[in-house]
Amino acid sequence: MDGHARIEQWFMEYGSDVHHFLVYYTGWDHVDDLVQDVFVKALIGIRRYEGRSSPKTWLFSIARRVAIDEQRKRKRRSLHASRYRSENCPPDRTPEEIIFLRQDLADAHSCVMKLKRSYRDVLFLRVMEKLSAAEAAEVLGWSVTRVNVTLHRAIRKARFVYEELNGGVGE
């Protein structure tokens, strides 16, 4: 399979995952241009892809670098990033349940966004994207041990932040 066909197939398989990753990573709702940049860079670098990791892991590595570059550009221009807000609510919920669900999601997102970048990164990759420790390590350029230790610390810190947010009452 040639490079174009391979990237096209990966776009169909992993495009929404890359989009979700970039929304999380940047906190911006509109990341379509960044998704496009990821797949353009993947196409340019497809010859360097050795298959030692899954395509999804390789694409997340590219997406992370693209996001970091974009954040640097925006910081230089002093633009304010909008925060990600989940619009996904199951259709079988009552309006009251949807309000509580959105509040819970907002609280969880608020807690996560108060964590330092490394904690947010590892939580997203391991918990939200369900990557293995080895895959997350590859995306982040860390050792597996560092991923596991950081995940443990991130969960502990997130609990603490949640309890602070909710008046010291843990659930």
TrEMBL record:
Cited InterPro entries: RNA_pol_sigma-70-like (IPR039425), RNA_pol_sigma-70_dom (IPR014284), RNA_pol_sigma70_ECF_CS (IPR000838), RNA_pol_sigma70_r2 (IPR007627), RNA_pol_sigma70_r4_t2 (IPR013249), RNA_pol_sigma_r2 (IPR013325), RNA_pol_sigma_r3/r4-like (IPR013324), WH-like_DNA-bd_sf (IPR036388)
Domain spans labelled RNA polymerase sigma factor 70 region 4 type: 108-157
Species this protein is from: Cohnella terricola
Biological processes, Gene Ontology terms: DNA-templated transcription initiation; response to stress
UniProt keyword DNA-binding, yes or no: yes
UniProt name for this protein: RNA polymerase sigma factor
Family in the record: Belongs to the sigma-70 factor family. ECF subfamily.
Keywords: DNA-binding, Sigma factor, Transcription, Transcription regulation
Gene Ontology molecular function terms on file: DNA binding; sigma factor activity
Pfam families documented for this protein: Sigma70_r2 (PF04542), Sigma70_r4_2 (PF08281)
Keyword Isomerase recorded: no
UniProt lineage: Bacteria, Bacillati, Bacillota, Bacilli, Bacillales
